[in-house]
Amino acid sequence: MIIAAERVLAKYGVAGFTTNHVADIAGVSIGSLYQYFPNKQSILATLIERNASQFATTFERVLAAHPSDAPESVALALGLEFRAVYHGQGKVHFELYDQLPTLGLVRILEASLTRMTHQLTLWLTANPRLAVRDPQATAWVFVRAVEGIARSFAIKHDDVNEDAVAMQTIAMLLAALPRRSEQPAG
After folding, report:
1. Residues 6+ apart with CB under 8 A from 142
2. Sign of the torsion formed by the C-alpha atoms of 96, 102, 106 and 108
3. CA-based angle 64:173:131, to the nearest 5?
4. Dist. CA 38–CA 150, nearest whole Å
5. CA-CA to 69 of 20 to 30 Å: which in 1, 128, 161, 174?
6. Are 75 and 130 in contact (CB under 8 A)?
7. Are 97 and 144 a contacting pair, CB within 8 Å?
8. Could you read off the pLDDT of 107-149 as tens digits, one per residue?
9. What is the rounded CA–CA span in Å between residue 69 and residue 89?
10. What DSSP character marks residue 133?
11. % helix, strand, coil for the chain, step of 5
């Protein structure tokens, strides 16, 4: 039913999102739908939780796969992964972002951002190539900056090139990471 709900949201937006549409797309009776979800808001809340978790899980997976890689490699891997997730469901992401305050679900997004901040803090601390003085503050700023840029881009991008925005964001973040100086071989 969740996949059906995403399809309805992508096709009709929140304004046209109804439990009847979801039941029709899912191929179930409205009564069956209500056994799992008492109302439209509970379906949207589940979608928001799923969406936020998907981004946090992707973030954790990429960081775990590149524990000591150069930040440039990790930024590229994260960018490619997030782009794949976003492009598969761009309209869904936009519609869900719009519903966070309305449904009182900002805490779900914040929990996901906190999860990503924690993982990035660990990665910054453990990466032998970096000399970050305050990994937690750096991670907090990075995660929230990227989230803000992504949200702004999803809402309205004024014909700004998506690739250029991604490259500029990555360049900005990488420039803020102090590197350990290499000791000459002796």
Report:
1. 120, 173, 176
2. negative
3. 65
4. 31
5. 161
6. no
7. no
8. 888 999 999 999 999 999 999 999 999 999 999 999 999 888 8
9. 29
10. S
11. 75, 0, 25
**C-alpha torsion sign, points 167, 178, 135, 121:** positive
Q: Which residue has the tokens 């939780």?
A: 49
pLDDT of residue 100: 76
pTM: 0.81
Range 157-161 average pLDDT: 75
State both tokens at 88. 């598969």
CB 15, CB 32: distance < 8 Å = no
Residues 6+ apart with CB under 8 A from 26: 1, 3, 4, 5, 33
- Residue 25 vs residues 34, 73, 88: alpha-carbon distances, Å: 15, 40, 18
User: 105 phi and psi, to 5 degrees?
Assistant: -115, 20
Closest among 103, 95, 93, 86 to 45, alpha carbons compared:
103
**Alpha-carbon torsion angle 63, 149, 105, 25, nearest 10:** -90
Tokens 């914040």 found at: 110
Which residues have a Cβ under 8 Å from the Cβ of 45 and sit 6 or more positions away? 103, 105, 108
- Distance from the first to the final alpha carbon of the chain: 63
Q: Which amino acid is at 52?
A: A
